[in-house]
Amino acid sequence: MKLPEELKYTEEHEWIRDNGDGTITVGITDFAQGELGDIVFVELEPEGSEFDKDEVLGTVEAVKTVSELFSPVSGEIVEVNESLEDDPELVNTDPYGKGWMVKIKLSDASELDSLMTAEAYKEMVA
């Protein structure tokens, strides 16, 4: 299981990359994609959608199950990974790279402080 140290994590198995410009990139972890199995469809709310922390911003459908994607922070979706429409298995093959889900403009950057470090996430899933 890969866990990049520079990312933050949630209890819902999402990773967060701070882009340093008031936005974050969100995806699901290597652990989560492994548990879900082969991902066949990703449905995400459109750009411009606003969310509070922990609201559902999309779903990830695997062969045997559907899982919700929760917003790790409050903010607005500024970009959706359009590649996942035609190639949802990118989430399986490159969860921390080409398999990212959305970019969110932060409403409250202090919410990032409540997210887990790689070490804390690793302990949770161990």
Describe this structure in words.
The protein is an alpha+beta fold. The chain has one domain (9-108): OB fold (Dihydrolipoamide Acetyltransferase, E2P) (Beta Barrel), CATH 2.40.50. Helix content is 18%, strand content 35%. The protein is built from four helices and nine strands. It has helices at 30-36, 83-86, 90-93, 118-125, and strands at residues 8-9, 14-18, 23-28, 39-44, 50-51, 56-62, 66-70, 75-80, 102-106. It has a six-stranded antiparallel sheet. Strands 4-6-7 form a three-stranded antiparallel sheet. A hairpin with a 4-residue loop joins strand 1 (8-9) and strand 2 (14-18). The radius of gyration is 13 Å and the shape is globular.
Strand order of the largest sheet: 1-2-3-9-8-5
Q: Look at the structure and give the mean pLDDT.
A: 96
CATH topology label: OB fold (Dihydrolipoamide Acetyltransferase, E2P)
Q: How many domains?
A: 1
Please report the total strand number as a whole number: 9
Q: Report the CATH C-level class.
A: Mainly Beta
Q: What class, by secondary structure content?
A: alpha+beta
Query: In this structure, how is the largest beta sheet organized?
Result: 6 strands, antiparallel
Instruction: Please compute the radius of gyration using only Cα atoms.
Output: 13 Å
Weakly predicted, low-confidence segments: none
CATH superfamily: RNA polymerase II/Efflux pump adaptor protein, barrel-sandwich hybrid domain
The gross shape turns out to be globular
Helix/strand order: EEEHEEEEEHHEH
CATH architecture assignment name: Beta Barrel
